[in-house]
Automatic annotation (TrEMBL), chains A, B:
GO molecular function: (S)-3-amino-2-methylpropionate transaminase activity; 4-aminobutyrate:2-oxoglutarate transaminase activity; pyridoxal phosphate binding
Native species: Branchiostoma floridae (Florida lancelet)
Cofactor: pyridoxal 5'-phosphate
Coiled coil: none
Gene: LOC118429106
Protein's name in the database: 4-aminobutyrate aminotransferase, mitochondrial
Length: 463, 463
């Protein structure tokens, strides 16, 4: 009961969108608005705008809708009178949880907990998930340093004034091209676009190069291995450099695929060795699965594909989980109250929805669907890059987490995105010249074919 | 249709709460859990727990519920089928807003915008509201510095590595005792409790002393004026010190009443002069109304009471507004896209609820109710501090935003809070030895009398 396909009737944005844009612009900035939507009429993989245009949506609200629009399983949760009090009375979840909170956590988050990570802390978005994971790492590190002793009076006093030793000069390593959020702590580890960071004071933390692999992978094995080696050597060097400068590196944060940064992949071997290096230096290993999690790679978590012997210490999530938080090992439980805390700590109604997502993915075998639809899409894009070798290269992906680069750079990429929109395909960009596909888990092989056909038409017009 | 009064049947926490605590503790830390709640049965000013105990709640989920539990106006919003698609399809609000977004913003946020602040940016919680307000201040400052010129290639390059000049060494002034949130940027301006800050690396930003006034105010006018003068002189000194060290102070952030820090008040004159000082140094003035906003002081915004000639540049909100964000002047609009941005930027369903809150406050004249109930409560507490002069002092407040100090310090305060809970009053602490009242806007004079009577009994038992 979706639409049969996209249908575009007006310019994008259409006249009604333009009118609403003017209204909104008098109250708030609107630089990023594409068009206004009719969410009531949107269905499954199809987004409807206020001018009656229907788009096949392969971007799904910046990769944040797991089951597309108005999925019956989610409508059922919100229509269930038993959930009404959960929706209307948002609690201070840390202090006064609802009766069903343990069971809800069990059925939603713990039901899909990464192997080896038995604990979870709920948060509200990707940024507070990462911010609090960073804090958990710093606290863990200092607790180890103290060897069981309580903090000193000097530590308790100096921290109040942002000074060492109470606010110690600890660091966290991130990678070039990374995106972990935009609040100040997260932003210190984000290095995807200048416009996100310009003018904002930051922290001098180590930044390692992320591998820049060549595609197709099978034709560049030796080169790519050398590139990953170069990056891992730099990780070693930064650990030594910062530690000898008295600025311990307490952890490393990494995305399984750098999403905002341009869909940059690295091999499972790279991540396995990165995990080993963090162990070697006594640092925590934090995997940010805010965009890669929840089945989009064909596994529930992208890092499942690395087959680690040692699980990560912390895995953060948000977006398609519908709320945020982080999984962690026993070792990373806060050692006393109010150290990892805020008023809301997420929201029980999001857990109720997450529970329905987890159940639907299992019942409808959606991971298998993702693998099938993803393979049709990736094969189609590979075919297009052969057909249009002056326009496209580097088709790559896992599951439906797929991207391709535009040879003509930023302008070329944006032209293709605009033309796709005119043909009723709502997609998105990342990095400098990349088109990324981030459909919902209900995106099927026949949708993939429509995307490939539309792109074929767009590319033919450019050629 | 509330309860007639509190009713306590078991120990707090009761046996069912203890059982759930054990369950939850196997999945997540639980240091801060007080007891588990039955939100379905909770009503108005009364919170019901899973053991059937009924509390008169004057803390309202850390001051975050505007209309108490299960208010009909909010139930109506959530039961309205027209809102279902708003609840189920959370959009990337910056890119693809729903059709009713401009009208919703108008009827919820702009309808109560502080005088002179015509723009608003929606966010999801107090922390991202403050983090983004800080970023807006730094961007505004650097845009002024550039005098219309675009950023230099060097700035664009260095910011990617957290280095100056792209990530400049700018600072933001805050006050001792302040609380502005717990993400790293917010935490650099929070100075209420060591346990919030210990072990977390921070930024060397200026921290001015916040006035410590003596009560009753009318008996200590000269002393208090001198104390405020001392603090303002320090503000001047810090502006000069940091600026001459090449670390410009771009803004000052302040709460109208320091809430977590112990309900510390300052006079309208203090804030008026603080505003003038920020102007003098070309810095922004940010008022954090996350806890003081939404009518609790008897005015919609606490800073209304200062009668500023020059409005603040930015006012942040969250908690009782049900979502977060910040109001700002035209000058503080971001100058290009994706500088102030994140995936969700709040949530339209929270605006729908906020709209109902705004309407209910107006229709039911709740600001007047707050003033009346607050005056009964404050008078009652003043009477108690006269009756128990060895136990209580410094009763103070605006509207129902009321606090009183316990002479026996932390342990004494916690004993009173526990005893109050046993008598069915759910309240909270702040600062080192303060009890704070943060009831909903529907808290009435007869509820205030119950609180005073219960406290009288508790104090008599201690005496
Ligand atoms: S920082 Fe995550 S919701 Fe505000």
């Amino acid at each position: 009961d979706e639409f049969d396909g996209p249908s575009i009737k007006t310019d994008i944005p259409g006249p009604r969108s333009k009118e609403l844009l003017r209204e909104l612009n008098s109250l708030s900035t609107t630089h990023e608005v594409q068009f206004f939507c009719n969410y009531e009429e949107s269905k499954g993989n199809y987004l409807v705008d206020v001018d009656g245009n229907v788009f096949l949506d392969i971007f799904m609200q910046i990769s944040s809708l797991p089951l597309g629009y108005n999925h019956p399983a989610l409508l059922k949760v919100l229509n269930d009178p038993a959930n009404l009090s959960t929706l209307v009375n948002r609690p201070a979840l840390g202090n006064l949880p609802p009766a069903d909170f343990p069971l809800r956590v069990q059925n939603s988050l713990i039901a899909v907990a990464p192997k080896g990570l038995t604990n979870v802390k709920t948060m509200a978005c990707g940024s507070c998930s990462n911010e609090n994971a960073y804090k958990a790492i710093f606290m863990w590190y200092m607790t180890k340093q103290r060897g069981g002793a309580p903090p000193s009076p000097e530590e308790l006093e100096t921290c109040m004034y942002n000074k060492s030793p109470g606010a110690p000069d600890l660091t966290l390593m991130s990678f070039t091209g990374a995106f972990h959020g935009r609040t100040l702590g997260c932003l210190a580890t984000t290095h995807s676009k200048a416009i996100h960071k310009l003018d904002i004071p930051s922290l001098d933390w180590p930044i390692a190069p992320f591998p820049q692999l060549k595609y197709p992978l099978e034709e560049h094995e030796a080169e790519n291995r050398a590139e990953e080696r170069r990056c891992l050597d730099q990780v070693h060097a930064l650990f030594r450099e910062y530690t000898s400068a008295g600025r311990p590196v307490c952890g490393v944060v990494v995305e399984p695929v750098q999403a905002e940064g341009g869909d940059n992949h690295a091999s499972p071997e790279f991540f396995r060795e990165l995990r080993a290096i963090t162990k070697e230096y006594g640092a925590a290993f934090l995997v940010d699965e805010v965009q890669t999690g929840v089945g989009v790679t064909g596994s529930w978590w992208a890092h499942d594909l690395w087959q680690l012997d040692d699980p990560p210490d912390i895995v953060t999530f948000a977006k398609k989980m519908l709320g945020g938080g982080y999984f962690h090992t026993e070792e990373f439980r806060a050692n006393s109250g109010y150290r990892i805390f805020n008023t809301w700590l997420g929201e029980p109604s999001k857990l109720a929805m997450c529970e329905a997502v987890v159940k639907t993915v299992q019942e409808e075998n959606l991971l298998e669907n993702v693998r099938q639809a993803g393979s049709v899409l990736l094969d189609g894009l590979k075919h297009l890059q052969t057909k249009y070798p002056t326009q496209l290269e580097n088709a790559r992906g896992l599951g439906t987490f797929i991207a391709i680069d535009c040879k003509g750079g930023d302008a070329h990429r944006n032209k293709i995105l605009t033309d796709l929109k005119r043909k009723g395909i709502q997609s998105g960009g990342c990095g400098e010249r990349t088109i990324r596909c981030r459909p919902a888990l209900i995106f099927q092989p026949h949708h993939a074919e429509m995307v490939v056909n539309a792109m074929d038409e767009v590319l033919a017009e450019q050629a």
